[in-house]
Amino acid sequence: MACLGHPIVSLHSLSRSVANSQCWRPKLSGGAPPLRSRWRMDLSPSTSVASSAAAACAGTTTSSSSSTSFSPRCTGHSRMPMARSQQARWSSVITAASALAACAVGRRQASASKWRARPSMLMARHDARSRSSLGMRRSGFSSSPSETRSSVASAREPVRPGKVSAVLPVAPEIERPAYMLPGVCVDQETGMYKHDFLNVIEVKTPDQIAAMRVACALAREALEVAGRAVAAGVTTDQIDAAVHEFIVSRGAYPSPLGYMGFPKSVCCSVNDVLAHGIPDDRPLQDGDILNVDVTVFIGGHHGDTSSMFVVGSKPDPAALHLCKAGQRAMMAGIEVCKPGADFREIGMRIQDVSDAAGLHISELFVGHGIGSYFHGAPGVIPFENDEYQGTMLPGMTFTVEPILVEHTKLEASHRIWDDKWTYQTLTNARSAQFEHTVLITDDGHEILTGPSVDYLTLAGLRR
């Protein structure tokens, strides 16, 4: 179950606190912003623009009781004639912009070269992607030679909210996670329960790792149950009920149930729903694609995994392209996981796959640390970024779960349903997400929720 800006806390602030060894103060937003570096400056009539730029580069700030937001306009505070005032202000703006640009490029290049030498720098790669988006994707064409924007999206109806059934019961003898216990400490600003590993990456003991293996193996079994229930005419509520019954029959608790008010045991995100779709009475239709996200709690630990599934045996080629690329992207991110690896390498590899497929990566959602807690440090950013979070150590466990989206720039084109959980694209663009829980071992990594569910065989597409 991916972390996001709202209603779950964005791990962007968490990532910064881990790197800077500062106290993490979670904040809510209507959708986590892109996790790339952003420059912001306040200027006042009595503050030198050049000194403000220098202070920003040095990591310090200048303040003034009459400060205004950085903007190339005359505020009327100056006693100079209007024309001269505007000319001076524009000159100051250009000076500040030049200083900040030079500083930003220098810091970005220094950060990139410090952790990993690459043939091309981050800025060059970003510019190339921007040109591709502006030149090809906004014109209706994919940068993938094998795929163009088809009429399928326009012909397909966007997913609409359905009726959500009552909460399913869980036997009282089944162990509950901490956030379901009475008296749990909850952050009043975010609604998220507090624990020791919100801003510290946990290195687990052998006993904890053994418990994680049990929880993750059960989560993988539950995901297989969900996949076998997928068929045209079946509702996502029925899939939820099947998985719920399986989990509780094994003496485990379905982690999403009751987590910050989530009313169901799994997340089912169909077609243009990005993530955290609440199961309801909408029947699945032939040609739909959906993500089922399963997390179980047993033995004091959580196991988290998800997969795409295809409804029917004749999906359109664009849907298969999206799903296959999503799985490749997840596996590419996992392949770099080993002791000493930088967490940013995960996003770098995922970005490579997404770019090659002509798709976009959701910057609203990140992976997360997991253990006796559902969500914790680190925030595993699934796209190219310069957010340093340290290096991987044996005993760390976290999820890798990128969301790839077809032919759209996501951060400007999504809505949140009234349920405060369901994120949906505005352009009817479909998304694909795969997720595994990963353990860092002494000599590499172990996929605790592996092997991946063979969704193609379940749909009759691989014989």
UniProtKB/TrEMBL annotation:
GO term, biological process aspect, one:
proteolysis
Does the record's keyword annotation contain Protease? Answer: yes
Sites binding substrate sit at H276, H375
Q: Which keywords are on file for this protein? A: Aminopeptidase, Hydrolase, Metal-binding, Protease
Enzyme Commission number, as recorded: 3.4.11.18
- Cofactors per UniProt? Co(2+); Zn(2+); Mn(2+); Fe(2+)
Positions of a divalent metal cation 2 binding: D304, H368, E401, E435
UniProt binding sites for a divalent metal cation 1 = D293, D304, E435
Q: Which reaction does it catalyse?
A: Release of N-terminal amino acids, preferentially methionine, from peptides and arylamides
Which Gene3D superfamilies would you find in this protein's record? Creatinase/methionine aminopeptidase superfamily (3.90.230.10)
Whether Protease counts among this entry's keywords is yes
- Bound cofactor: record note: Binds 2 divalent metal cations per subunit. Has a high-affinity and a low affinity metal-binding site. The true nature of the physiological cofactor is under debate. The enzyme is active with cobalt, zinc, manganese or divalent iron ions. Most likely, methionine aminopeptidases function as mononuclear Fe(2+)-metalloproteases under physiological conditions, and the catalytically relevant metal-binding site has been assigned to the histidine-containing high-affinity site.
* Peptidase M24 domain ranges (all copies): 211-442
Q: Where is the signal peptide?
A: none
Highest taxon, organism lineage: Eukaryota
GO MF terms, alphabetically ordered: initiator methionyl aminopeptidase activity; metal ion binding; metalloaminopeptidase activity
Q: Name the enzyme group at the top EC level.
A: hydrolase
Biased composition annotated in UniProt, kind: Low complexity: 58-71, 131-144
Region: Disordered, residue numbers: 58-86, 127-158
Per the similarity annotation, which family is this? Belongs to the peptidase M24A family. Methionine aminopeptidase type 1 subfamily.
Q: Which PANTHER family match?
A: METHIONINE AMINOPEPTIDASE, METHIONINE AMINOPEPTIDASE 1D, MITOCHONDRIAL
Q: So what does this one do?
A: Cotranslationally removes the N-terminal methionine from nascent proteins. The N-terminal methionine is often cleaved when the second residue in the primary sequence is small and uncharged (Met-Ala-, Cys, Gly, Pro, Ser, Thr, or Val).
Q: What is the protein's name according to its record?
A: Methionine aminopeptidase
Record the organism.
Polarella glacialis
